[in-house]
Every structure is written in C-alpha cells, then in structure tokens.
What we know:
With about 300 residues, the chain is of the alpha/beta class. The protein has a domain at about 210-298. It has helices at about 35-45, 65-70, 80, 90-100, 105-120, 135-145, 165-180, 195-200, 215-220, 225-235, 275-280; strands at about 1-5, 10-15, 25-30, 55, 60, 70-75, 155, 185-190, 200-205, 210-215, 285-290, 290-295. A hairpin with a 2-residue loop joins strand 9 (about 200-205) and strand 10.
Amino acid sequence: xxxxxxxSVRAVDSVSLDIEKGKTLGLVGESGCGKSTLAKCIMGLExxxxxxxxxxNKPITTWNKKELHRKMQMIFQDPYSSLxxxxxxxxxxxxxxxxxxxxxxxxxxxxxxxxxxxxGLRPEHETRYPHEFSGGxxxxxxxxxxxxLNPQLIVCDEPVSALDVSVQAQVLSMLKDLQxxxxxxxxxxxxxxxxxxxxxxxVAVMYxxxxxxxxxxxxxxxxxxxxxxxxxxxxxxxxxxxxxxxxVTLTGDLPxxxxxxxxxxxxxxxxKAFDKCKAERPELLEITPGAKVxxxxx
Length: 298
Ligand code: SF4
C-alpha cells in the first residue's frame, strides 16, 4: 500500500498493485490523477512516504541503482524531447551500452543494428539525427534505446498520445510484438482508453491519486462497474455505430489533490452519489474474482 506526499499534497494514496511478469498493467485517468506520479514511484524516481515497492520480490530501495536502471526503463510521450537533437540515432541507442560498458565497440555497433531492426528501422538510420525522422519513427528509436539494456520492466508514459491515430496502432502493435518476444512487463499509462484496451491485460482506473477500479482488461471494458470508469468509457466511440454507449457527462472539474473532497473523492461529480458518499470513503474491494472497485454501490 503506497502513499506519496509532495509538499503538503498526497499525490498518490493507498495504492496497492501487483504486476505479473510478461503482462501489461494499464493506468488510466484524467491528467492530474496521479498516474505519472505513481509511475515515477515504481521507477524509484520519487520516494514514497509510506508503503513499499518490490521489484522481483526485493524492495527497490535495496537495489543497486545502476542495476535497477538496467532492469527498469521508461518511454516518454514526446520522443523528440527525450532524444538529444545533436546526437545521431546510433549513439543515442548505444548510450546505455556505453554507460554500462557492455560489449566491445564492434559488438555495440552490431547491437545497435539489431535493435534498429527490432523496431522496424534500417541499419543505415544510425547516422541520421532525430529531426530527420517522423514522430512514429522517433518513438521507435526511443523504444530501441530502452531495449538496449535488456530491461524487464518498461514504464510507457503516454507513449502514443502525441502520434497520429494510424501511427499509434503501428507503435502499439510493435510494443505488443516486443513484449511477446522478450517476455517484457509493461506499465502503460494513458488517458486514451482505446490505446489502453489494445495492450493491457489488467487496467487500473485512477482518480485523485487513488485507484477506483482494477480489473482484467476485457472485463473492465465490457462491464465497467465504477461510475467514473463508466463515464470515461462513455466518451469513447464504439466501432459499431448502432451500439454506442450511453453518454455520461461529468460535471465540474477534477478537484485539486491539495483539497480533496471528503468521503468518496469522486462524489462531487458522480451522477449516482448519495449521502453516504460525502461522508465515508469506500475502500477498493474485490467484487468478483480479480476485479476490485472502490464504490459504495458495491
Ligand atoms: Fe459515486 Fe458514491 Fe460510488 Fe463514489 S461511492 S463512485 S460517489 S456512488
């Protein structure tokens, strides 16, 4: 169970999650819901004020930082700002190998070519600069760089949000193929539910730093339980024009975590709120095997 205070704000509260090796956990919610903060906690980039994060059954605070960095990598939303514009693609991908002194110079070069091939680019691309690539290609380069150190866990923070829809599908499909091939574990953060549904095995829906619903992906998308999940899903168009979900409009803005509402944090915007919701906070409880919801309706 994790808690993280930034200044006087409890940015992530009472979060308890397991991520299975070789699977993807999707984290969804509006911006400011705490999902990126949670990702930084998982990576050891933010320290938690209470609770513990275990990686391979060992607290991350007891890992050698360099070793942990090899095993956990991150992909960011904007590949352009995460790639040094003055460096050629080859040296960007090779950077981790250089830092960790892995292999000889010719082995590193061969590894760069192998990584470029894995992400659908060609060996000759190593001499080009980031600005010579499209957004989708730049994200492929960022993925190649994360793979250089053979990581086991990759945190993908909005990795396709900045890309065109058609390119998004290609990058998602590449991430899925790489996961199957290398048994990678992903934490996939997005506000885009359709991207999350494509890649996630389990999905956690976050609101104001708390998990509102946690369930296997298929179950959550077919039968959302929490009113917040229902509202998020109702905004996503179904591919079947005759079977569109009933639109639930959320009123009001996301409250500030500096002054969270009493009781259920979602109650000021919840169309199903009743008296108890304002006074008492519901815990995240299992309602069917593997599926948990924090709501007094259950
Ligand atoms: Fe809505 Fe109440 Fe459930 Fe919160 S606990 S989601 S306010 S019904």
